[in-house]
DNA sequence: GCTCAATAGTGGACTCAGTCCATTTATTCC
DNA sequence: GGAATAAATGGACTGAGTCCACTATTGAGC
């Protein structure tokens, strides 16, 4: 069983944490690159045994996505809080922007800025993509339920994927903007606007 | 060195081929599922040694994408053939649709239809999307050059990603439609239209 | 025919990610 | 002092992917 982040009342207390392993891993990735860093090295530096890594992360590449993993949950909450009478795409956009408000200039996910430095790897891209798919699926079910269409409906799927993709584009552009980047929200707004615009028109027809 | 598909004049002739390994692999995937099939089993059935597999494919999951490998090149060609005076997004859309015309009802990439049957796991789904990610970069540079904007421009990035994502959505919906699916083109058209519409408006402003 | 270069296939050893399971350790509740 | 619970560990195992040296089969030039 993968350890949860909240320590329960009973049982042996944690010696370790996702964050400790994350820190150790990021250090090593910067020093040696992603591919050359083994899980054994990570756990050694964190002062635990190799197997403990897999108590906290299902795979090596998952170490990048600690910060992002709650975004899915937050997005789900925000999406279900959208008032029923709001236009679908506009409501969805608002939900995205609300979640993005949590990301100030300092809260850039590590992987976005350090990807080049660690010799970003196919494996890493792949793990990013699976996050993408997970987010897209949250959006997809929301759209399907609001539009009263099956979640396999082509336009629903297209809209969900396009929204998610635009979000990633915004995050990349934002991270790439350097120290002057400011908040994520304006980037996201500009990226989502055309997509929402286009699909809102498609859905009212 | 990964073997090329054209047999050169000199040297030992091939005993094997990408297609032979592909066939053997697909059979086994259907029989046992993707995860339970080892490369050793694939090469045994194809009558070659394990190492030969890696002469033809860099990784197990690459066996799915033989058919898709030239799509990037074709898209690049079609994009550069777009007349200069066409509106950017409309021209891009046409190029996508032209490439898609190559995919009739029978030419469904195997993986798209058999995904469920082989116990489609995350690795496979993800390897699908990462193929398309390469396409996003082709689109991105085309848009940037036509719009005379840097390829890092937020809207350019967003448009490229959104187009690619809509394409994936179309391909999935098409494959999921079963034997009555018909051609890919109409699915793609419906998925791309809203995205192109939205960004065309954004870019003229 | 012989030799040479080129290319395909093979064998074997190796590293490391990820799985599995049994065992130990630390803690709380009773 | 148990009993229950949960974290950490040790060790064995599978399989992907890498590396490299070696063999096999061809065409070309002589």
Automatic annotation (TrEMBL), chains A, B:
This is AcrR family transcriptional regulator. Keywords: DNA-binding, Transcription, Transcription regulation. It comes from the Bacteria. PROSITE patterns: HTH_TETR_2. Residues 38-57 bind DNA. It comes from Compostimonas suwonensis. GO terms for molecular function: DNA-binding transcription factor activity; transcription cis-regulatory region binding. The keyword ATP-binding does not apply. The keyword Transcription applies. It holds the Pfam family TetR_C_14. Residues 15-75 form the HTH tetR-type domain.
């Amino acid at each position: 069983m993968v350890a949860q982040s909240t320590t329960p009342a009973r049982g042996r207390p944690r010696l370790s944490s996702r964050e400790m392993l994350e820190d150790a891993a990021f250090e090593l990735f910067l020093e040696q690159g992603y591919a050359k860093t083994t899980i054994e090295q990570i756990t050694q530096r964190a002062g635990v045994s190799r197997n403990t890594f897999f108590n906290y992360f299902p795979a090596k590449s998952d170490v990048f996505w600690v910060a992002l993993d709650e975004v899915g949950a937050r997005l789900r909450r925000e999406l279900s809080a959208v008032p029923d009478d709001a236009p679908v795409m506009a409501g969805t956009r608002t939900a995205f922007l609300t979640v993005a408000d949590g990301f100030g200039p300092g809260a850039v996910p590590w992987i976005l800025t350090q990807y080049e430095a660690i010799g970003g790897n196919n494996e890493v891209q792949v793990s990013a993509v699976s996050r993408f798919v997970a987010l897209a699926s949250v959006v997809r079910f929301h759209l399907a339920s609001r539009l009263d269409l099956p979640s396999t409906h082509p336009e629903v799927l297209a809209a969900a994927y396009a929204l998610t993709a635009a979000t990633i584009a915004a995050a990349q552009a934002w991270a790439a903007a350097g120290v002057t980047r400011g908040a994520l929200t304006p980037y996201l707004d500009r990226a989502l606007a055309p997509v929402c615009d286009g699909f809102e028109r498609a859905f009212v027809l």
